[in-house]
Amino acid sequence: MRRWTIIFCLLGLIPIPKIYGQSEKFKAIFIYNFTKDIEWPSNNQATFQIAIYGDSPIFDELNIIASKKKVGPASIVVKKINSISEIGDSKICYIPSSRKKTIQEVSMSLKNKNILVITDNATDFFGINFTEVNQRLTFQISKSNIEAHGLKVTSTLIGLGIAVN
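^ that's the sequence the OP posted. Answer follows.
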């Protein structure tokens, strides 16, 4: 827990405009760390899949992490999808801002699935949403939306983000 706090404090101190191109790297680190504070039912698979809906530079950043890290005993597999029917056994679906118009449709399609929906600059229908506050990368977290997908979130993660309903 202490390491989480240090990471988020340090990331919160770095203004995004001064780190051109680095925001996707930080988002990928956040996503990996989110896996430690979200509980998926029956998470005993050999792989932990993360789906990226459409094109996003975060795909490459997550693949770098996937080559070095695991989620518990599971290897991380990052896949790019172009339709929600391709989501398969993914545990996380990241929707970049380029697909902002589809967030409600995607989220509703995943309503009865144990999938964490992570968005970028969305206004609703997310479990976790990346946003900027005073030119600093942070995230909003909706406990009710996460729980609606049959997932559990720790109070630690809720405390690190901006809680919304």
